[in-house]
Amino acid sequence: MGKTIPPFHLRRADLDDLSALVELENRCFTADKLSRRQLRWLMQKGHSAIQLLEVTPPDSPALAAYLLLLFHRGTALARIYSIAVDPAWRGCGFGERLMQEAESLALSKGCSTLRLEVRTDNSRAIELYERMGYRKFGQYADYYEDHTDALRFQKRLRKTPATQVREVPYYQQTLPFTCGPASLLMAMRALDERTEMTRQHELQIWREATTIFMTTGHGGCGPRGLALSAWKRGFDVELWLNVEGPLFVNGVRNPVKKEVLTMVHQDFKEQLEATGVREHLAEVTQFDLQQVLEAGGVPLVLISSWRFSREKSPHWVVVTAMDEQFIYLHDPEVDEEDQKTSVDTQHVPVSRLEFSRMACFGQEKLRTALAVFPAASRQDR
């Protein structure tokens, strides 16, 4: 039998609670502990919520447990990053109560999905999650400091129609400007398991498809460059562009750089005309993306990263599934400063309205996407 549940209350943590939180963290964990600096950052800058559970004896409240919940801008995804219950108060049901609080907070923020990770040897926690309706959807190798694997669980908080998620292997970009190559590697590997998802292949595609210059930093990859890279590797490709181009030139002030962007644009265009890539000078629609998935293809979409990271830059993502309410994405960028791992960037649910807003970049209102199909479909189309 469990312990008798004492009177308690929940409240949001503030900076005055830092010392108590650090002490609780040290009592609960021997490894993978959050530092005072991390907790302070999460309170001040993180897109997060920290809820304290305090028991209320006659003399003064005592911190018994806490919940750390992370939210991800532009998405309908929340993640339970940590639940800690003081060893003296275990068996009182506080863990389950904090799980319920996490679901309530996530729903209040408009989230549809709640995810978490748990050690493979933590049988009590796994039993609780399964009893509360969480389902295992993957495993994360060598996740904890002692090299123990983590099981990945999620729960759909809002009822939506069943969705068949396309099995797209995940690849994290290794450089800030290689989201396009990383996304293309994921798409090609989903269609052909012989595709090597390596850094060498990632950089090779970047060299082939780069625009050379971008608004800032190294050049990213444009839609025509990526389409050519996929075609040269034997895949069938379909491309949508609502702006003829040259693309991204409005964000560059230097006239020499503008000239180079224009030359690269013209070269890609001429190369593409000599292929069988089907190009549509039109806005890509969500209906187009749905048709690609139903036809066995994998869509790559250019979005504005502003709604994810508050940075105004073009960013490639992979669409892995769609239902009536959400579009699901593999995002190749893992922002570790925002406490993200690749768990948070796979099959990320984004509302259809939010996706429509983010899939539009720059002053020219660029909407572009490419669909990659199996090589055999070249003969079928």
UniProtKB/TrEMBL annotation:
Gene3D superfamilies: 3.40.630.30, Cysteine proteinases. Keywords: Transferase. The keyword Ligase does not apply. Transmembrane segments: none annotated. One of its GO terms (molecular function) is acyltransferase activity, transferring groups other than amino-acyl groups. Residues 8-158 form the N-acetyltransferase domain. Coiled coil: none annotated. It holds the Pfam family Acetyltransf_1. InterPro entries: Acyl_CoA_acyltransferase, DUF3335, GNAT_dom, MshD_Acetyltransferase. This is GCN5-related N-acetyltransferase. It comes from Desulfurispirillum indicum (strain ATCC BAA-1389 / DSM 22839 / S5).
